[in-house]
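Weekend entry, working from home. Most of the wet-lab plans are on hold until the incubator is repaired, so I used the time to fold the two sequences that have been sitting in the queue since the last round of cloning. Logging both here for the record. First:
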Amino acid sequence: MRRCLGQWLVVCLVTFWGSPPVPGAVSIQEFVKAKKKWPSQVGLRQVIEGRYAITGRILLKFQHCQLEFRSTEPLPKLSRRSKRDVNVQVVGRLRRDGQKLFFQVERISKQDDDLVVYARRRPTGSKVKASDWFVLADWASRRGSFYDDPLLQEKASEANRNGIGVARSQASGKLQSLRDVSRLAVTRGAGADVQRAIEHEAFQLELRAAAGKLEVLGRLRDRIGRGLVGARDSKNGASGPLLVRYRQDPVAVYDQANSKERLTLHRALYTSVAMQLIELQARAAGSSGYQVAETIRREIPEAVGEAARWERLAMDADLKRVVSMSRAELDRLSSRMKAAGRAVEAASAVDDWLEARRGKLMDDGVAGRLRWADLLLALKNDRRRAVTTLIEADGLKPDDREVAERLEQLGYEKKEGKWGPVPSGKGGRPRRDTVPVGVQVGMSGKRLLAAMGAPRRMTRVAVRGAISEIWVYGDPGGSRIAVHLVRTRDADNAVVRSISQLPSRR
């Protein structure tokens, strides 16, 4: 009898330790979840695995389960290498002790801790499917939640991210598939960074497909603005090596970028679409380069260089037709070119414009020469040539009142039939060297425009039934005048009331 008992104990210990997991084992989580079925399962052989909470000589309890697991023989001492290393598998049957249920243990075996199991179950090889990772993620998630194990829950997140990575790789180049993976990333809790990376890749596909399509680009720009954080904020605009690399390989660079860098890349993608849209709209509407530049400065303020490029192209085009321009167009071109640092070219353009009109004005006698003198003064501030021209006009029509008035304004007098400078210190009409000839009190606004062109700046104020205007001519760093005009509400044209010299802003 004693010999038989000894043999049984040896067999028992072997079965307690070193036995492989029995296929079809139910987790303690699933077992507890099916508690209502326990009465109907009495006597049925079951295999249950999970983390134990306490053990005694013949008693074991699992974590989160109040049912007693009893053995008729002493249980072996369960050693553990970590807090998590408490997994066991038991084989036995539910029994009744009066009205109370318990589990009769027939066999017990130590199991690997969950992190070891996770590592062993990680999918490997070239044929791994996304679903393989999701199965592992679900297992880790359920156990991590049941045992309140943050590390195991993190492993679940890792598996979900890896599964999404496989799915994304398989969906590469297929827009709808990428959109599906993006939604799956949300469902799987892969994280906002992962989901945004997939959305960004999808946007890149859409951008390539939308090239040249006005309406499609417009919708895409708006969706990028709504879907990517910081895309509409010009403060996120930047330049540098990151953007250079991004333009070369946008998907790879975005995937590797940190959160701060991604804000910059969101803006870069948005502005790329917006720029294409601006250019397409300009072509469709026949807009000038100046209008394109203005739109860029308004919608993409950080794109200074691109706005300047469009403006430069427009100026270059205008230079080719400068001789056919109106005076107002010439003034605008000259101002733009000076502001752009192209003053020498602006001066040359003015010379070409003047030369194209000189011959015709010379053929127009006194009136033509008066006009020519006004242009020389207004556009070139060339007093010498203006005086020469006015003296020529006087020769054609001696004692012409308007010619004489212009010369006197320039500080000249006629003596013994010849015009010459008024001697220094001599009384008489004061010289107004800084006020261009042809600008006089009482002249109309139309005549002022003809003589001086469009003002550099205009201010308009309505006062007691009249409109008061101040037209400013000249460069801030040089000679400037302010012309005050008044127009009644029922009048067609304004009249010059006063002319004043403005101080230089040097």
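Second, folded right after the first finished:
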Amino acid sequence: MVNGVGVNHYRMIKIRSFTIYHLPFTIPFSSLKNDTCHFSTIRLMLPLFSMQEVSLDLLNKYNVAIPRYTSYPTVPFWDETIDSEHWERMFVRRFEESNEKEGISLYIHLPFCEKLCTFCGCNKRITTNHSVEEEYIDVLLKEWNLYRKSMNAKPVIRELHIGGGTPTFFSPENLQRMLQGILADSIVPKVHEFGFECHPNNTTREHLQTLFELGFNRVSFGMQDSNPQVQEVINRLQPLENVIQVVKWAREIGYESVNLDLVYGLPLQTLPRIEKTIQDAISMRPDRIAFYSYAHVPWTSKAQRLFDESDLPETSEKMRLYQKGKQLFRAAGYTDIGMDHFALPTDLMVKAHNEGTLHRNFMGYTVQQTGLLLGLGVSSISDIYYGFAQNKKTIQEYYQQIDTGELAIFRGYFLSQLDQKMRQYILDIACQGKTHFHKEDLEVLRQYTFHELDELAIDDLVTWGEHGVIVTDLGKHFIRNVCKAFDLKLLSSEVQERVFSQAV
């Protein structure tokens, strides 16, 4: 029995849902005697499927260059220039729409690292000179004040995330100065989510305590892999004891949510090694685990050229690493959120996932759905719903632009109504594993999307009809491919193969 449904009965549902994918979901499954099975019913059953093995044929077919869909349209389709005045007008409009009702989100990018991790594709600068901290904070606060002048009220900061680089490269005192400069004339509601990323090797208890007292309640530690050989090849030697220590401190101080970042597909990773890493992570009982696929993009990240590509796991082996991780997380009681994220049933992310309120943006999955995400710092990206804008990607250019009294944005995109609709479909798939089609969109969906869904359904990755689509358990392995079915920009354009990382 599976949740009160006999096994044979359950298999019949799965077969039937596959064979009628051209029909609306509102049509009942007549083979189930007097029962009816509607769209919502299928949704409840999907998580009950046992994890399926992924064939080599499927891997070869769907392991293509494809976006991670933290935005739509994705960055390669943005304009290389952006009208700053129009951006400011739209920013003001969105702030006035969102601030009082939902609050706003902030992302702060701190780019400095003391050592180069060869697997990393983030925007960073390697230095051991900590005098760079003060100048960077000075400029970042100038940028904040430029936006602050456009706000007609105190900003209600419901969500704040500090990423990098290595945020804990900065001293606790400088982090405090930066955050006090932002929060001094802002409102922080009782219900908020403030988080930051940490390197276990340089995170002190003082870092954790200082940020906690400033309202931070979530912390993420970059564990990546616990095997010394893997750590050596990615230039990130990090004793497991360091990770255990910072997690212990975070618990003692009172952080509500502790996340561990793990990466699969790294050079020299094997099934026994990834299993040991995952067991090490689970033993600390983090509230959340991000199990990221290593994105091999040496054409954009020169550091990835520093190790031998022959040390990378083959595609089929990489999928086995992922499946082993998924199996171990589920066995340990973690819920599969989607897009490489797992959480304990008590975590707010699981609650948001179950209630259909989970959101995804450039910060990843979030339980806060504010209408405006403002990115501060070099290379940061802002999302104001009507459009995106990215800051200058080098520190020198960023400093120069801000010092002139102008925003440091250099490229972006303003969304059409159709773009907004497609973005929502993609968000639904990424966050809920399903979406419902609107009648007014059917014409364009028939032109671009339905053919893609046909192909996905043949491979048992989705079930669908003209009312909507649901991702199967097998399809969760290829969630980016399912999102692609709604990516009209990608489907209607020729994109260079090496723009995106591989799906697996």
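Plan for Monday: verify the second prediction. The chain has a mean pLDDT of 86.
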